[in-house]
UniProtKB/TrEMBL annotation:
It comes from Pseudorhodoferax aquiterrae. It comes from the Bacteria. Residues 5-393 form the FAD dependent oxidoreductase domain. InterPro entries: FAD-dep_OxRdtase, FAD/NAD-bd_sf. Gene3D superfamilies: D-Amino Acid Oxidase, subunit A, domain 2, FAD/NAD(P)-binding domain. This is Amino acid oxidoreductase. The keyword Aminoacyl-tRNA synthetase does not apply. It holds the Pfam family DAO. The lineage of its organism: Bacteria, Pseudomonadati, Pseudomonadota, Betaproteobacteria, Burkholderiales. Keywords: Oxidoreductase.
Length: 414
């Protein structure tokens, strides 16, 4: 039976949720304060990471922890004043990353990741977005032989355990494949399965246009006005008050702000990140991860995008120049980056959970309220799969695409 649904948040996750609900015959309104794809989904490396079968675990090695604590690298940064507020979620993140919990988490994560490209592919075709997608994978490039040897051992394990494909490249092969490189590096690992998107925000916008062609409605609205109304939910929009039987919270790093007044205390936190584009120099043939420095360099329509690692800080705190400056300096060692496009780097926040799994399913204490957020580094990758799963749950499917239990909101006792 069809229903009316409000989807709050027009990033990759919310837009794909709206599409899958519309495909099932529901009357769907996609609401956001900005146009689709202009927030978190805009500012990533543009990768659909079919190879990312294991989530980012909290480091366990003392040397790595000391390096982060002393800010000796640029891959991780933190605001000291934010640490007391992050202590609880980070302690749970540490615990979930340990050997007693991580293997089961990784299995649940891998099952979801396996659906990433199979779910993106039909949407890319339906949205007419093939021009944005490069299907040649991406590379981890290495400055040090020791780092490469360690990564190769992990790649071999991922192939054995999950079937992830990879190809090792020595220094000569990498130099021949990537003439834009200024340095002769130790080598690379090429992951052929991921797809690279030349404009992540544009892909979300194309998906949103496809949603509109399916009969969906896109409106400007303030999610903070969400309220229970009768047997359903309502939100104030630029077009007036909108009512629906169901409401989906797909607000990424803003989900916690909306849910706390409703009584939910999910242990959410954010990892912030930065990027900037550069034009005028040679362009890589595909995205690279500089594995020894912790930044990604990706060819995009706006230029070469340099993206940083993770910053632990309040979502809306002032930008910190340290990471982006370090990433730019490291990228300039590898490439000519003559001209920055933006006057200032872009900054965004990734919505994270302590157990590294997204939150997908019904709100524990409110009928007709649904959650779809907490995808951390992989919201862009998992948006279509996560959107389909939630649509199946709203429909009451007896056989959803994956077992939803590991992602259920109630697992945190909220």
């Amino acid at each position: 039976m069809s229903a009316t649904v409000l989807v709050l948040g027009a990033g990759m996750v919310g837009t794909c949720t709206a599409i899958h609900l519309a495909m099932r015959g529901h009357s769907v309104v996609l609401a956001d304060r900005r146009a689709p794809g202009e927030e978190t989904s805009y500012g990533n490396a543009g990768l659909i990471q079919q190879e990312a079968v294991e989530p980012y675990a909290f480091p366990r090695e003392a040397a790595k922890l000391l390096r982060v604590a002393l800010k000796r690298g640029i891959d991780v940064n933190y605001h000291a004043a934010a640490l007391p507020g992050l202590a609880g979620p980070l302690a749970r993140y540490w615990q979930a990353s340990g050997p007693a919990h991580y293997p089961a988490i990784a299995q649940a994560y891998a099952r979801f990741i396996a659906q990433a490209i199979p779910e993106h592919a039909p949407l890319i075709a339906a949205a007419g977005a093939d021009d944005l997608v490069q299907r040649t994978g991406y590379r981890w490039v290495f400055r040090e032989q020791a780092t490469m040897a360690e990564a190769l051992a992990r790649a071999q394990r991922l192939h054995r355990d999950y079937g992830v494909q990879h190809h090792a490249m020595d220094a000569g092969a990498l130099a021949a494949a990537e003439p834009a490189l200024k340095l002769r590096l130790a080598g690379a690992i090429h992951w052929p399965q991921p797809w690279a998107v030349a404009d992540p925000g544009a892909l979300v916008a194309r998906y949103a246009a496809h949603f509109a062609r399916l009969g969906g409605r896109i409106v400007q609205a303030d999610a903070a006005t969400l309220q229970a109304r009768g047997a359903g939910w309502a939100v104030q929009s630029a077009d007036g008050l909108l009512d629906a039987e169901h409401a989906v919270v797909a607000l990424g790093p803003w989900a916690d702000t909306l849910l706390r007044p409703l009584g939910y205390r999910l242990p959410l936190f954010v990892k912030r990140g930065y990027h900037r584009h550069y034009r005028g120099g040679p362009v890589p043939t595909m995205p690279w991860l500089d594995a020894d420095r912790g930044l990604v360099v990706a060819p995009m329509q706006r230029g070469v995008r340099v993206t940083t690692g993770a910053e632990f800080a309040p979502r809306d705190a002032a930008s910190t120049p340290r990471q982006m400056a370090g990433a730019e300096a490291a990228a300039r060692e590898l490439l000519d980056l003559p001209q920055p496009v933006e006057p200032q780097p872009w900054r965004g926040a990734r919505p994270c959970t302590p157990d590294m799994l997204p939150v997908v399913g019904p709100a524990p204490r409110h009928r007709g309220l649904w959650f779809n957020f907490g995808h951390a580094h992989q919201g862009f990758t998992l948006g279509p799969a996560s959107g389909r799963l939630l649509a199946e749950l709203i429909d009451g499917s007896a056989a959803p695409m994956v077992d939803p239990a590991p992602y259920a909101p109630g697992r945190f006792g909220a």
